Amino acid sequence: MKPAASSSAAGVLLLHGLGRTRWSMQSLERRLSAAGFTVCNHGYPSRRFSVAALTEQLRAPIAQLSARQQPVHVVTHSLGGILLRSFLQQHSLPEGSRAVMLAPPNRGSELCDRYRQQLWYQLATGPAGQELGTAGDALPQRLAPVAIDVGVIAGARSSDPWFNHVFAGPHDGKVSVASTRLDEMRDFLVLPVGHTFLMRDPAVHAAVLSFLRSGRFVCQSR
């Protein structure tokens, strides 16, 4: 999606999660646009390709935002966080860029561990879904630290109770709070929201804006 034209505003790239579309990020797009950011809400075929192939599809929208010679912030949901980390293994963002990851499986997904051999999971998540395990040799664990300021927001209320038995600790229905953590993250926030609609929550929106502006989650938890 082409970003709205504004030469003076920092750009924000939105990356939706696995099995979703850019429409799932629309309310966040509106909130960020109203706050003065130039937003590119990028859609990608998350269930058709591997993480490496999906990562390549980020080059064009990031280049377009980078050409404006402003910081390029990135806000991701779920798999989008892994794509950003994958992109930053070989590429960089302009100086001053920040990222907020919403419910990212940074240490892998327990659901992948449990269900990756089952046909319904393979159909629902595609090639990328097979790469999100928690084992030490799985893709999330092999990615090197990223060199931008990152804030992580985790959900601690299940939106998918049929998966509750998979998790030993707090989770959002798809990803455990522990699995969202990133060693190099600058700030971390846990909110009582579920994975499926976390990116639409007003408290999440406020926290995202806070981090993009200041590099910290300066807001009250609920």
Q: How is this structure best described in words?
A:
- The protein has 222 residues and is of the alpha/beta class.
- The chain is 32% helix and 15% strand.
- It has nine helices and six strands, in the order βαβααβαβαααβαβα.
- It has a single domain, classed as 3-Layer(aba) Sandwich (Rossmann fold), CATH 3.40.50.
- It is globular and about 50 Å long.
- The protein starts with 10 loop residues before the first strand and ends in an 8-residue tail after the last helix.
- The chain has helices at residues 26-34, 51-56, 59-66, 79-87, 110-115, 119-129, 139-142, 177-180, 202-214; strands spanning 11-15, 38-42, 72-77, 98-102, 149-155, 187-191.
- The longest helix is centred in the C-terminal third of the chain and has 13 residues, at 202-214.
- A six-stranded parallel beta sheet has the order 2-1-3-4-5-6, with helices on both faces.
